[in-house]
Records
---
Amino acid sequence: MKNGNHKKDITIGAKVEVVQKHHQRTGELTSGVVSKILTKSATHPHGIKVQLDSRIVGRVKKVL
């Protein structure tokens, strides 16, 4: 299992767990399938921002 700090580890269609903006304090994770990668840079210290199939946007914490 990889963390979501490196864009190369995340592909469209990958199953991931993300933290949404309003859950950052609690750290509550939402799982889903990546439909879009929104972060432009190769890495991000808080996780790569993605959009899931369910249209939820969050930062990847785990790649399953």
Note: Strands lie at 15-19, 29-37, 49-52, 57-63.
---
Amino acid sequence: MNVYVSKNGKVSLAVGEQPKDALLFAPAKKSSTQLVQEDLSAWKISNSLIQERFTQATQRQ
């Protein structure tokens, strides 16, 4: 797996030692479509929990 580095707004293949302020990252083994679907699924679950709890909190007894 390749590791990439972002330095001064430019992304390149990381080779050798990198400066402390460089951002190192490796690409995910998932496609961008899979990542978006997972993010959307997590958002839907979170949103439904918030709505459910808000409804419970505002119910009159």
Note: The longest helix spans residues 32-58.
---
Amino acid sequence: MFTERSGLIIWVNDLKYSKNFERYGIVHYVSKRMNYVVLYVHTERLEDVQRNLQRLPYVKKVEKSYRGEIKTEYESDIPDKTRFYTL
């Protein structure tokens, strides 16, 4: 139902060209202070898009986002002590 997407962090020389990234995927965030763009693309097209972006003259570096690989389900080994402090 949902297509798998992966994130790319694109470091640019100038944010003037950040609108051009919309043809490659979905622009999620643009940092004016640090000059980078977060772009989401379909996972099966990731390598091609990354290669094409690297060729652009205003792109410094393209990195793959590891947000999808970070564990978001947490387990607690410490017992819950809130039951001791009830009224």
Note: Strands lie at 5-12, 26-31, 36-42, 59-64.
---
Amino acid sequence: MPFSIDIENVRCGGCASIIRKAFDDKVEVDIDTGRLLFDLNESERQQVAETLKSLGYPEVGSAG
């Protein structure tokens, strides 16, 4: 089942590429909306959010 996370600081294809590489191309990044789509377990959502934050792309609304 696909899940999504709205993330901050996604500005261009380079940003999307950095994010995709961090997840071995198992995610999709919509640059226009700043939304990350992934087809991982829901239980992995927190780990995904933490990885994004460490890359400089925190979840919208996080303290990040």
Note: The helical segments are 13-22, 45-55.
